[in-house]
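[Q] Does anyone have a clean structure-token version of this?
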Amino acid sequence: MTYQPFLPEAAAGNISPRHSVVPLRRELRRCRVLSGEVTRIEHARKVATVQPIIGPPREVPYDHIIVAPGSVSRTLPIPGLREHAVGFKTIGEAIYLRNHVLERLDVAATTTDPATRRRALTFVFVGGGYAGIEALAEMEDMARDALRYYPELSPQDMRWVLVEATTRILPEVDPDMGAYTVKQLLKRGLDIRLGTRLESCVDGVVRLSDGDSFTADTIVWTAGVKPHPMLDHTDLPRDDRGRITCLPTLQVVDAQGQVVDGAWSAGDCAAVPDLTADKPGVLCSPSAQHAVRQAKRIADNIALVLRGRPPVEYRHKHAGSVASLGLHKGVAQVYGVKLTGLPAWLMHRTYHMSRIPSLNRKVRVIVDWTLALFLKREVVALGELHQPREPFTDVTPPVQVKEPART
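[A] Here you go.
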């Protein structure tokens, strides 16, 4: 299980990437873990079809099912996006981005071609939500820190661009907090493009709706999420945005308002009414803040139903949001209290440390942070991880396979 709020810190080298991932087999001691992919859910028969890593698919019958595959990046049909951009939803993407940014510094420090250097040192992030802002700020902070080992480069050589289609960033907090964040990023020399869309990035040539165009080797897409496409292969009811429709008790409900017996959902893929909202029809936002609390509520509710008791409605008033803008820098708005700078950064770390599952991971994250107080940030790239067989294949000659002689 990946604790996604720690992806920016893992990418920036503030914590070890494996410490943002919780091993299921160790933590779920009384569970049977099947490594594979759910390819179909037929709730009418109460059967899930699972495709194991190797071997034929198998049907798994059940009495109750919790459908919580989460979300995936919400992309748009933009030319070149599939070929040249990377998302920021998984630990693999975070590790890749870290290695790629450091590799680009190596390229820029070595080349004698000004155009190649400009392209290598141009980093574009699309999307001004929390994921995009944290990824942009943390990676810029890491790259700036790494430049001490690159005498050929200066911070002014780097170009960090944020592209946001709306006129504000961080929509989860008040506009003044978003404006503060923009000011802080501008002070660091970042290029903030509000009210601007990415129209094309074919061959790494970034074309924006404001008419500007430039080349970039790094394009990161963080412009929202959508429910996991696995839901297309279920017979569970969904709303117009593809989310599973739920009652506040987290039970799946059909269009007629009837509870679908034995079906539950939570997290980013579930349309759960927010009972604390000021007006009806508001749904819980797709955030870790709701997901971790809904998980506990759904487990307790299944236990209640099995004992013949009614389930309890999920109710949680959004506490606010916290975001890191790099080491010792942050912004936070929690229960109406607004913090910036070091206090916000400390609140960000404290909150997420308390939320990551398992004592093992809490301790390891604290150790990582403590060591960072005394040791310099690790800025080594391990780009070979993405092509591990390449050095071996380069030195291994091809062998022509001879067909067996026919008799």
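[Q] Thanks! Anything notable?
[A] The longest helix spans residues 91-110.
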